[in-house]
Amino acid sequence: MEQPVILKAEHITHRYEKNPIIEDICLHLNQGEIVGLLGVSGVGKTTLFHVLSGLLTPTKGRIFLAGEDITGKAGHISYMLQKDLLLPYATVLDNICMPRRMKGMKKKEARREAEALLEEFGLEGCQGKYPSQLSGGMRQRAALLRTYLFSGQVALLDEPFSALDAITKGEIHQWYLNVMENIRLSTIFITHDIDEAILLSDRIYMMSGKPGRITAELTINKPRPRGQEYMLTGEFLEYKKKILELLK
Amino acid sequence: MRKRLQNITSKGISAAVIFAFLVIWQALSGAGIIPKFMLPSPIDVGRAFFSEFPLLMEHGKATLTEAFLGLLCGVLLAFFVAVLMDWFPYVYQGLYPIIVLTQTIPTIAIAPLLVLWMGYEMAPKITLIVITTFFPITIGLLDGFRSGDPDAADLFKAMGASKWQIFRYMKLPGSLGHFFAGLRVSAAYSIVGAVISEWLGGYYGLGVYMVRVKKSYSFDKMFAVIFLISAISLLLMRLVDLLKELVMPWERVKEEK
């Protein structure tokens, strides 16, 4: 059952002071799909995200959101940067409301909308706290809810779980997969953790080289959500083996 | 809990040192080792303080009014200039050297000029306070505006935020800590600035009172007014801290954690 394409990038090349960072990248994201972007550090994954989000205008290439050309235009796609970047001086609720406020929504209305989603994201009871009072996992949840409130359509997540310890990471992977079952947010996420990529993704793009290109694509056929025990199956290891070979 | 205990002990130590200092001072002066007209004893100073209390309060009110008005103007001007400098790089490049230059002019040199130009009333005093208080606040605000995480600015841009929104939701609240650090220094400066400019010409204020008691060799009253000025400065700084706690509740939360 193939879903319609929601985000499409065609032949993206970006140069920084004449040095190509990424070259001729084509990718697409289907509705409701979770796509992993896997590659070593410095291959240009974050640059690609900056381009997709509209923070950078690519030297060449076009980006389409639901058919509309959004090349170089910020404000259409949710982008969660590597750090959670919660503002220390605003409560969790006001942090989450921020994208709505940027779009000119009234404070009260934005709060009401955000409050309705707190439970879904496991953040009930945290709204009045400041980010410094939350654990790393809870901060990530808040950042993710903020990302979702920005655009319920497409989100780019740059290493969303890399700063967490292994145990918290395992928990939040399960939480994430469950939330995604309900909100169906089409997502591309960056990771350099192969296990994480297999566990969370429907499809994985692999980037390598200098300048960075997409060198391989792999579909994970196991339906989501996948429990942690999936990581112990032979099927999982087969995927892992394949990826390691493709990344060579 | 342990921290609190440490706090109490350290406060206890400094209180003990101050007390010992007062005792030695009293002994030196009371025993006549240092003549009383040169160094009055702490008890004499206390007595002078209470006998002069109504007069001190009257002059203190004048000084405080000047300090407050000067500080207020200084803060408003600093805010205006800092925002301009932050928004327009040319303004920054043009004004920064001048602002630093104003800090190299000794207060004591410029105060008599201000009196000459503006007379013996409030105006030269407020001007002097503005000159001295404006600098720490401007620099504090500028640093504060620039202290934000560039990634946070990217996040705001990705959310489609305007320059004004980035300022309103990120730069401005992010600069509050720096602002209050500057304000704390400036609050103390404002009292000193007021006293110096009163010293050099005026009808009211603690500076004027100081000149009078100095001329009459009433060293006990001189000391009394010095203590009053210190006390006012400390009180103002404490007031700034309280204001900060009120405006920045998240800072307190961080400490509790």
What do you see in this structure?
The complex is a heterodimer of chains A (248) and B (257). The longest helix of chain A has 18 residues, at 166-183. Chain A has a six-stranded mixed sheet with strand order 6-7-8-3-9-10, with helices on both faces. In chain A, strands 2-1-4-5 form a four-stranded antiparallel sheet, with helices on one face. Helices cover 35% and strands 26% of the residues of chain A. Chain A is an alpha/beta fold. Chain A has two domains: 5-77 and 152-247, Rossmann fold; 86-150, no CATH class. By secondary structure, chain B is mostly helical. Chain B has two domains: 1-39; 42-256, Orthogonal Bundle (MetI-like fold). In chain B, 85% of the residues lie in helices and 0% in strands. Chain B has helices spanning 2-30, 42-51, 53-87, 89-104, 107-118, 122-146, 150-158, 163-174, 176-199, 206-215, 219-247, 249-256. In chain B, helix 5 packs across helix 6 and helix 9 (176-199) packs antiparallel against helix 11. Chain B starts with a helix and ends with a helix.
